[in-house]
């Protein structure tokens, strides 16, 4: 069966250890995690995790069912099955001598990204978008020399 | 049953006394909450982090506490108690090594869906995370092998946590729940307010199945020419054995019961085919492989049952009835999934299911297979007592009415093959995890649950040495378990694989140096008997049955005996080595 990327939203009780329960489940059952983000949800006491995982349909079904077995999991939604909005944020520290800065700024502006810090020989670029956009931004900045890269992983929700 | 066994109190009588709201310690809250859950017996071992809890138990006799000699004994005993009674088994251990000693037992219960509440002490909350003396992250360690767990940081949470723990452990797909209580929490004084209800948003097991799926099953039964029921432990755990009996009688479908399903269906019934899988009957395995409809009820297609998965039940439409949706489609592709409580499902099916009228030839085929290829061994005394004969002796002398626990290995399979179970909760064995050292302490727990029934603990000479220290609690409490040691002086199942699959390369299986089991029993004050021939065996066993109190009987048997039939790993289940069954 076809292996593809899935985005799953998991609504969980905001309890100590809940991240360990979820990530441990993925680990011991051999499910892959490409990224995982956790934060508050619209309801106090509940957090929402957004997990990007790879697998065929059978694996995805097992992931959903196994997640539901955790007492602290309230709801599991396969976001990628329907239209969704997904966003990721990346901070990219790129080597930037004063002479190179205008050129880099040009790239940044084209991507509607932002420069959030400038040092003596480098700049920090903040880019927000879907994973493809961030990948493209990174590739464009790579020739200048990326000193440090930090990505949040994907967060997402259904459209409409 | 001897007088030393504790008298059980009526929960109702004492309820009023326990419910009083007072300012008490976390430890007292724990005890009261356990009583309110109906706990009559706990198995435990004290230590530094549970000193307050044990202090609260000083002079306390509203439930019985059995002091084992190892935490592993305590957890297996709690497991045996739960499997025999259907109630939640309770075990108490201290922090660090006390808690980690329960890990094997927790995993055992988890694999076989046994409801346990495991209470561990921990270091004080201020010391957690500092590598304090006897500190272990037991909630972290047991996360993959518990249904749920709690680390309690405020004694006021204890009534709710304990109530939830019992609810989670004994509902849905049952399993162990761990409650970790730091020492300061067990000393903390708060007003006791008993928990009134459970409110768990993320936990609503599906009990009642989807009607449409049931209709599909009923239609499939009416069309089937070669239908088979594969029934597992879920039938017993849901209390669905009578419903299964009715379903089989109404539908006329032959039934095979897994290792954990033994006892869910009477073994004398014409349509019972025995156990399937690696050491199952010819009939059950052939029937599954030729079936056009396989109805799996409360079983999970374990690899020991299915053999090679891609060749399992190749012609069958698969129906899977289970309370755990994650089991459906996990190993075997399912055509008709039915999520629900087994008893509820069967009770809804029974009024509507018809007789499988196209399966007459099939039923005749099953009956002739049963006659042609039963379990068989060469019954001779030439080279020593045969272990299969010993199990038959136990069966014949107890008419299959005893509660039997086993350890793990050859004796476990021979018991499954030759002891004819007729009642649910009468066969207690570690099926999923295959835990050696389980059988004997589990028998102690089973006996505590059923003080008046005959409990037989069947062990090998290997496993008997893994929890032998619990002879002490049998002796001191006069717990009248009949302990059987099938002694072949070798790790028999490993020897069998090394003979058949590893080319007779017998690597580290010789148990020379084992104790004299009769003397070992006597050292603890338990009567010990030994038999090496049929005549001695009959005498010794009768003496054991006639003895009031615990007895250990060692049967010295032939080393080279193998369990047959056997499906080698990686083969489909119809590719059986028949051995002596030929």
TrEMBL record, chain A:
<comment type="pathway">
    <text>Amino-acid biosynthesis; L-isoleucine biosynthesis; L-isoleucine from 2-oxobutanoate: step 1/4.</text>
</comment>
<dbReference type="InterPro" id="IPR004789">
    <property type="entry name" value="Acetalactate_synth_ssu"/>
</dbReference>
<comment type="subunit">
    <text>Dimer of large and small chains.</text>
</comment>
<dbReference type="InterPro" id="IPR045865">
    <property type="entry name" value="ACT-like_dom_sf"/>
</dbReference>
<feature type="domain" description="ACT">
    <location>
        <begin position="7"/>
        <end position="81"/>
    </location>
</feature>
<keyword id="KW-0100">Branched-chain amino acid biosynthesis</keyword>
<dbReference type="InterPro" id="IPR054480">
    <property type="entry name" value="AHAS_small-like_ACT"/>
</dbReference>
<dbReference type="InterPro" id="IPR027271">
    <property type="entry name" value="Acetolactate_synth/TF_NikR_C"/>
</dbReference>
<keyword id="KW-0808">Transferase</keyword>
<dbReference type="InterPro" id="IPR039557">
    <property type="entry name" value="AHAS_ACT"/>
</dbReference>
<protein>
    <recommendedName>
        <fullName>Acetolactate synthase small subunit</fullName>
        <ecNumber>2.2.1.6</ecNumber>
    </recommendedName>
</protein>
<keyword id="KW-0028">Amino-acid biosynthesis</keyword>
<dbReference type="Pfam" id="PF22629">
    <property type="entry name" value="ACT_AHAS_ss"/>
</dbReference>
<dbReference type="InterPro" id="IPR019455">
    <property type="entry name" value="Acetolactate_synth_ssu_C"/>
</dbReference>
<comment type="pathway">
    <text>Amino-acid biosynthesis; L-valine biosynthesis; L-valine from pyruvate: step 1/4.</text>
</comment>
<comment type="similarity">
    <text>Belongs to the acetolactate synthase small subunit family.</text>
</comment>
<comment type="function">
    <text>Catalyzes the conversion of 2 pyruvate molecules into acetolactate in the first common step of the biosynthetic pathway of the branched-amino acids such as leucine, isoleucine, and valine.</text>
</comment>
<dbReference type="Pfam" id="PF10369">
    <property type="entry name" value="ALS_ss_C"/>
</dbReference>
<dbReference type="InterPro" id="IPR002912">
    <property type="entry name" value="ACT_dom"/>
</dbReference>
Automatic annotation (TrEMBL), chain B:
<dbReference type="InterPro" id="IPR012846">
    <property type="entry name" value="Acetolactate_synth_lsu"/>
</dbReference>
<comment type="similarity">
    <text>Belongs to the TPP enzyme family.</text>
</comment>
<dbReference type="Pfam" id="PF02775">
    <property type="entry name" value="TPP_enzyme_C"/>
</dbReference>
<dbReference type="InterPro" id="IPR029061">
    <property type="entry name" value="THDP-binding"/>
</dbReference>
<dbReference type="Pfam" id="PF02776">
    <property type="entry name" value="TPP_enzyme_N"/>
</dbReference>
<dbReference type="InterPro" id="IPR000399">
    <property type="entry name" value="TPP-bd_CS"/>
</dbReference>
<keyword id="KW-0808">Transferase</keyword>
<feature type="domain" description="Thiamine pyrophosphate enzyme TPP-binding">
    <location>
        <begin position="407"/>
        <end position="555"/>
    </location>
</feature>
<comment type="pathway">
    <text>Amino-acid biosynthesis; L-valine biosynthesis; L-valine from pyruvate: step 1/4.</text>
</comment>
<protein>
    <recommendedName>
        <fullName>Acetolactate synthase</fullName>
        <ecNumber>2.2.1.6</ecNumber>
    </recommendedName>
</protein>
<dbReference type="InterPro" id="IPR045229">
    <property type="entry name" value="TPP_enz"/>
</dbReference>
<feature type="domain" description="Thiamine pyrophosphate enzyme central">
    <location>
        <begin position="214"/>
        <end position="349"/>
    </location>
</feature>
<comment type="pathway">
    <text>Amino-acid biosynthesis; L-isoleucine biosynthesis; L-isoleucine from 2-oxobutanoate: step 1/4.</text>
</comment>
<dbReference type="InterPro" id="IPR039368">
    <property type="entry name" value="AHAS_TPP"/>
</dbReference>
<dbReference type="InterPro" id="IPR012001">
    <property type="entry name" value="Thiamin_PyroP_enz_TPP-bd_dom"/>
</dbReference>
<keyword id="KW-0786">Thiamine pyrophosphate</keyword>
<keyword id="KW-0100">Branched-chain amino acid biosynthesis</keyword>
<dbReference type="Pfam" id="PF00205">
    <property type="entry name" value="TPP_enzyme_M"/>
</dbReference>
<keyword id="KW-0028">Amino-acid biosynthesis</keyword>
<dbReference type="InterPro" id="IPR011766">
    <property type="entry name" value="TPP_enzyme_TPP-bd"/>
</dbReference>
<keyword id="KW-0460">Magnesium</keyword>
<dbReference type="InterPro" id="IPR012000">
    <property type="entry name" value="Thiamin_PyroP_enz_cen_dom"/>
</dbReference>
């Amino acid at each position: 069966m076809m292996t593809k990327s899935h985005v799953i939203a998991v609504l969980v009780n905001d309890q100590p250890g809940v991240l360990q329960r979820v990530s441990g489940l993925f680990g011991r059952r051999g499910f892959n995690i490409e990224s995982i983000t956790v934060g508050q949800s619209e309801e106090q006491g509940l957090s929402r995790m957004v997990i990007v995982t790879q697998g065929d349909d059978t694996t995805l079904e097992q992931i959903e069912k196994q997640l539901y077995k955790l007492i602290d999991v309230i709801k599991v939604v396969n976001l990628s099955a329907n239209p969704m909005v997904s966003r990721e944020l990346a901070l990219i520290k790129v080597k930037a001598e004063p002479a190179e800065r205008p050129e880099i700024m040009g790239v940044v502006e084209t991507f509607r990204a932002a420069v959030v810090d400038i040092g003596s020989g480098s700049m920090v670029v903040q880019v927000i978008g879907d994973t493809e956009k961030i990948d493209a931004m990174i590739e464009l900045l790579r020739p200048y020399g990326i000193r440090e890269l930090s990505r949040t992983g994907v967060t997402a929700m259904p459209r409409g | 049953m001897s007088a030393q066994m504790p008298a059980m109190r009526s929960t109702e009588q004492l309820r009023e006394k326990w419910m009083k709201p007072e300012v008490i310690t976390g430890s007292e809250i724990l005890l009261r909450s356990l009583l309110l859950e109906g706990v009559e017996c706990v198995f435990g071992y004290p230590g530094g982090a549970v000193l307050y809890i044990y202090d609260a138990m000083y002079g306390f006799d509203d439930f019985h506490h059995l002091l084992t000699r190892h935490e592993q004994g305590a957890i297996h005993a709690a497991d045996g108690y739960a499997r025999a009674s259907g109630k939640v088994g309770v075990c108490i251990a201290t922090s660090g090594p006390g808690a980690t000693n329960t890990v094997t037992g927790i995993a055992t219960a988890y694999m076989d869906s046994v409801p346990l509440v495991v209470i561990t002490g921990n270091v004080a909350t201020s010391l957690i995370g500092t590598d304090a003396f006897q500190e272990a992250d037991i909630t972290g360690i047991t996360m993959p092998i518990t249904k749920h767990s709690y680390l309690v940081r405020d004694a006021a949470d204890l009534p709710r946590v304990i109530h939830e723990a019992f609810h989670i452990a004994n509902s849905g797909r049952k399993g162990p729940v761990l409650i970790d209580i730091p020492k300061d929490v067990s000393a903390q004084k708060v007003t006791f307010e008993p928990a009134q209800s459970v409110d768990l948003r993320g936990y609503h097991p599906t009990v009642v199945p989807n009607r449409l799926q049931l209709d599909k099953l009923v239609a499939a039964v009416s069309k089937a020419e070669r239908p088979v029921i594969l029934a597992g432990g879920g039938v017993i755990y849901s209390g669905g054995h009578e419903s299964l009996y009715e379903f089989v009688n109404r539908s006329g479908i032959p039934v095979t019961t897994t290792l954990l399903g033994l006892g869910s269906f009477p073994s004398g019934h014409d349509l019972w085919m025995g156990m399937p899988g690696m050491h199952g009957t010819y009939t059950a395995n052939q029937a599954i492989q030729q079936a056009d409809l396989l109805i799996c009820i409360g079983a999970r297609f374990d690899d020991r049952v299915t053999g090679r998965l891609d060749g399992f039940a190749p012609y069958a439409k698969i129906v899977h009835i289970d309370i755990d949706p994650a089991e459906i489609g996990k190993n075997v592709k399912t055509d008709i999934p039915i999520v629900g409580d087994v008893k509820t499902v069967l009770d809804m099916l029974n009024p509507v299911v018809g007789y499988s009228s196209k399966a007459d030839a099939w039923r005749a085929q099953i009956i002739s297979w049963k006659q042609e290829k039963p379990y068989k061994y060469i019954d001779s005394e030439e080279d020593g007592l045969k272990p299969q004969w010993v199990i038959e002796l136990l069966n014949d002398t107890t008419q299959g009415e005893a509660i039997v626990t086993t350890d793990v290995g050859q004796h476990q399979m021979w018991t499954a093959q030759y002891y004819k179970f007729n009642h649910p909760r009468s066969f207690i064995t570690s099926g999923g995890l295959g835990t050696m050292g389980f059988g004997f302490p589990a028998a102690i727990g089973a006996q505590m649950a059923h003080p008046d029934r005959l409990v037989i603990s069947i062990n090998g000479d290997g496993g008997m040495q893994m929890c032998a220290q619990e002879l002490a609690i049998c002796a001191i409490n006069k717990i009248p378990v009949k302990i059987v040691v099938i002694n072949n002086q070798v790790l028999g199942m490993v020897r069998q694989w090394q003979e058949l699959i590893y080319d007779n390369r017998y690597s580290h299986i010789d148990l020379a140096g084992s104790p004299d089991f009769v003397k070992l029993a006597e050292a603890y004050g338990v009567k010990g008997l030994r038999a090496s021939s049929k005549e001695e065996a009959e005498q010794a066993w009768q003496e054991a049955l006639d003895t009031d109190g615990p007895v250990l009987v060692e049967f010295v048997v032939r080393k080279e005996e193998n369990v047959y039939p056997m499906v080698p790993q990686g083969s489909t289940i119809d590719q059986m080595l028949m051995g002596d069954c030929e």
